[in-house]
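INFO  loader      accepted 1 record
INFO  loader      residues=331
INFO  predictor   begin
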Amino acid sequence: MLKIAVIGLGWWGSTIIKCLQESNIVEIYAAVDIDEKRGNFICSKYNLRYYKNIEDALGDIDVDAVIIATAHGLHEEMFISSLEANKHIFCEKPFALSSKAAKRMITGAESKGIIIGIGHERRYEGALEELKRVVDSGKLGTLLHLEFNASYNMMVNAPPTGWRKDPREAPAGMMTALGVHQTDFMQTLAGPVKSLNSQLIKRSDDFPNEDVLTIQFNFKSGISGSLTSLATTPFYQRMTVFGDRGWIENREISNVDMPDPARLMWCAIDNEIHTRTFKMTNTVRANIESWASAVMGNGSYRFSNEEILHNVEILEAIVSSISSGQEVKIS
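INFO  predictor   done
INFO  writer      dumping tokens
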């Protein structure tokens, strides 16, 4: 088993520990948090070794790997420190906030032969696996357009001074909370993004920053796409792929904190609409176990370093387009 230290015990770091309790592939062995009260409480609850500082965890020879689940701006520093300590690394999304940082992180990992894990567990959802299978099979014909929506008012009641509402840590509305999952999956369907144009405006007083994000994508493959993300609308997520021989749509009413089924609908050239539901599964565990297995030499991992980097490039371009009001090309 891979013995892991979780860095950061906020909502998501604690969720990761909970999701991995029944794993036979990884063992959550230790955890790190600067808040001693929270750290001791969680470590006592799950019988983990507690460290206040990451340096102490990295110095523990029994720790094989780390999961970085901290504020986004700390990812690069903690990633590089973990590399220097020769630990395997799983990093939560967004991997980094700039492509320069992402390139430094990936170059360092590749120089040591480290397989990077990334927190895009949505690729392991049954409905999305089936959606991708249908798209890859060619049943939709020539792909024309992707139409995605990722909206959730989960941050409305978050502390107003927390880092999740800080535009420096979480730029572009809900992109770092929800949108980066969408763009990660988009690139698995349509390939790399050539250019994009994004807009972020404020409509609701329920959110301290701008809350309506819209993005138009042009993919190098010739496919077009759009993504809408609303920060104050109750949970709503939809992914629709259109081709000249049919369409397929995943309608999400499930999330880690909303364990309801997903509904997949598809329609072929005969105009018959088919519907299938997929129950919620532990995709956090599936993702981390897949990465850990690859680290231990058992199978391959679903994500490439090129995809991890490109998703950061997409996020960076979205932020740049919002700032400039212009289309941004991604080289």
